[in-house]
Predict the structure of Succinate dehydrogenase cytochrome b558 subunit.
Amino acid sequence: MAGNREFFNRKLHSLLGVIPVGLFLVQHFVINHFATRGASAFNQAAHFMENLPFRYLLEIFLIFIPLLYHAIYGLYIAFQAKNNTARYGFFRNWMFRIQRWTGVFLVIWITWHVWETRVAAAFGAEVNFDMMANIFSNPFMIVFYIVGVIAATFHFANGLWSFAVSWGITVTPRSQQIATYVTMGIFFALTFVGIRAILAFINPDLANI
């Protein structure tokens, strides 16, 4: 019985990491990337998201609850996990390790990001280009956010690989190798988008380098 519950929890954890949490990550990066087109373009995109119908219900049931479950159960997995060198070999074992490390870091990073933006907005602050530019006026926050972006994109991309394996999509060594190349491509593409957005908030000219 406990084994069945564990199996279900891990399946659900894997699924929520892709849908909806992973999709929200991609959407969030796309909105932030509008900063490369200037302050007005970003503000327009951000305000569009703020004015979506049933916004609070969408945030609660499609973002916060799935994200909380994924984070809490992910911490449980991270602190009780054992290395699986014998099963996957050296490379996959390191991906397994880094997946756990980035997951723990992301709990801290996302909590801080929500506090600086979403919670601040609840107290009357406006989430706009100026808010983000003010955050990135601190060099420490620039480094913190860049590390956060890299951790988030790695965690999502590598999580996609694990999702494909655990859900029986990639069952052969060849298909898993192809999935490795695909997810690495996703990692680099999303990292580029995320860091370019950060540079645009710091200095729009840097995003065009």
